[in-house]
């Protein structure tokens, strides 16, 4: 089955994932993480994309960003990827591919899913049994979104800002969200939307995206009457 084109719309958040080739290590020493984040900040500014949440794992990266131009995130990821590969190869005297092909991404319904995806991203080290609490992991946005660390890279989304009337209240409300378990079904929704270039959102949001882009935003329903008008319309939008 041919790969679906990425959905890129200005001012709609995207969850971006990039993995190391064959799931191999992409960050070797602490300096590597710092270099990646520094260049992410530079290219986010250059290509007009706001970074709301991130985590740098040993062999992959998760980013939650809102572009303000149609090509903002693709330009950012291309420039960042090229720079970081050159840096790693020169620093660690290696050659060859570092990343596993194209990065993966999916649009996020900010009103209903943005904070969920932010939690999903910052809880990665906990799910990987690297730490017991996201505050213990230095290479994520949690310490900026929930604690007192100043991370210039982060631009708060309006949904995050709505959590409270001031910074202290917002951070406290954000920490409260981490007391609740993310259901397995929600984890699957997030992963499927990102890995398969679907839209993560409710039905109304998905329909809006389909109208704007002219392509389907979710998988076709399984089974049912394959001769029905609804099936034919969905098939035509593949």
Automatic annotation (TrEMBL):
Protein name per the record: Transposase
Residue span, Transposase IS200-like domain: 9-124
Region annotated Disordered, chain positions: 211-238
Compositional bias per record (Basic and acidic residues), positions renumbered to this chain: 223-238
InterPro entries noted in UniProt: Transposase_17, Transposase_17_sf
């Amino acid at each position: 089955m041919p790969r679906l084109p990425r959905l890129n719309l200005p001012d709609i958040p995207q969850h971006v994932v990039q993995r190391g080739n064959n799931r191999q290590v992409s960050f070797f020493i602490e300096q590597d993480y710092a270099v990646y984040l520094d260049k992410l900040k530079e290219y986010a500014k250059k290509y007009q994309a706001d970074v709301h949440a991130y985590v740098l794992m040993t062999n992959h990266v998760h980013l939650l960003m809102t572009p303000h131009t149609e090509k903002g995130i693709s330009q950012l990821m291309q420039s960042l990827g090229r720079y970081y590969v050159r840096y790693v190869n020169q620093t660690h005297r290696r050659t060859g591919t570092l990343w596993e092909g194209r990065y993966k991404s999916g649009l996020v319904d900010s009103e209903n899913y943005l904070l969920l995806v932010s939690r999903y991203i910052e809880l990665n080290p906990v799910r990987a049994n690297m730490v017991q609490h996201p505050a213990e992991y230095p290479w994520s946005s949690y310490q900026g979104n929930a604690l007192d660390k100043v991370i210039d890279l982060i631009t708060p989304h309006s949904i995050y800002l709505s959590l409270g009337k001031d910074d202290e209240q917002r951070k406290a409300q954000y920490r409260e969200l981490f007391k609740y378990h993310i259901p397995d079904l929600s984890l699957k929704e997030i992963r499927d939307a990102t890995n398969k270039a679907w839209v993560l959102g409710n039905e109304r949001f998905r329909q809006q995206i389909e109208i704007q882009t002219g392509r389907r935003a979710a998988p076709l329903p399984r089974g049912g009457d394959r001769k029905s008008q609804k099936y034919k319309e969905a098939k035509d939008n593949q």
